[in-house]
Amino acid sequence: MATAAAAAIAKARRDIQHEFFSRDAVRPERAISIQLNRHIQRRVFARWQREGIIREEAGRYWLDVVAYDVDLRKRHKRVLFALFIIILLTLVGLAAGLLRPIL
Question: Is the pTM of this model over 0.90?
Answer without folding.
Answer: no
